[in-house]
Amino acid sequence: DGGITQSPKYLFRKEGQNVTLSCEQNLNHDAMYWYRQDPGQGLRLIYYSQIVNDFQKGDIAEGYSVSREKKESFPLTVTSAQKNPTAFYLCASSPTRTGANVLTFGAGSRLTVL
Amino acid sequence: GENVEQHPSTLSVQEGDSAVIKCTYSDSASNYFPWYKQELGKRPQLIIDIRSNVGEKKDQRIAVTLNKTAKHFSLHITETQPEDSAVYFCAATLPDSNYQLIWGAGTKLIIKP
């Protein structure tokens, strides 16, 4: 459904634990993105990757890490350094590395810190 | 950097009436303006977009207008239906920022029966 699969859909974490959110796409898109969505706010960019083995920080990268070892995969790790990690996380991809592109989103992962 | 403001944050309209959501942007170099719709519990999906060389674009009941002089663009939904209830996000992108989207805060559209 939609070509982008995020897992898990729901995740609970204790304070001090790292967690990794999975994002896989079969659209052959070059670029992939991670956004954080909080109530009443727009989408805030955490990290993005335009090509394998390369990624850039977005506006709120502190406390997060990513990797892009394969074109299809762009996992996000929420580390214990992230002060307020409870949020809805959306992964997206777009066809090319340059130019304005349509984003295809995954269904999201909701992380709750207990 | 670019900043996008979106108004209103909540909009309630009677079914069948029209709805208008407005966004303003700060950087005149912005050249691409998409609108995404996010239904409750679902992923955002593109519903319409416009580029800076066009003043208006229409797709059935949905239209987007762009005023480059005033640096604002608007989403117009006519003959609203219950399935139009959702959160709508506008965005803008700058060509010198790797085309990263800057998002508005969203508008919750409620269609009253």
Task: Give short descriptive properties of this protein.
heterodimer, A: 114 residues, mainly beta, 7-stranded mixed beta sheet, globular, B: mainly beta, 5-stranded antiparallel beta sheet, 56% strand
Describe this protein's structure.
The complex is a heterodimer of chains A (114) and B (113). Chain A has no helices and eleven strands. By secondary structure, chain A is mainly beta. In chain A, the strands form two sheets. In chain A, strands 2, 4, 5, 6, 9, 10 and 11 form a seven-stranded mixed sheet that branches. A four-stranded antiparallel sheet of chain A has the order 1-3-8-7, with no helix packed on it. Chain B is mainly β and 113 residues long. Chain B is 0% helix and 56% strand. Chain B has strands at residues 4-7, 10-14, 19-25, 32-38, 45-51, 56-59, 62-67, 72-77, 86-93, 101-103, 107-112. In chain B, strands 2, 4, 5, 9, 10 and 11 form a six-stranded mixed sheet that branches. In chain B, a hairpin with a 7-residue loop joins strand 9 (86-93) and strand 10 (101-103). Classes of the chains: A mainly beta (114), B mainly beta (113). Chains A and B meet through strand 5 of A and strand 4, strand 5 and strand 9 of B.
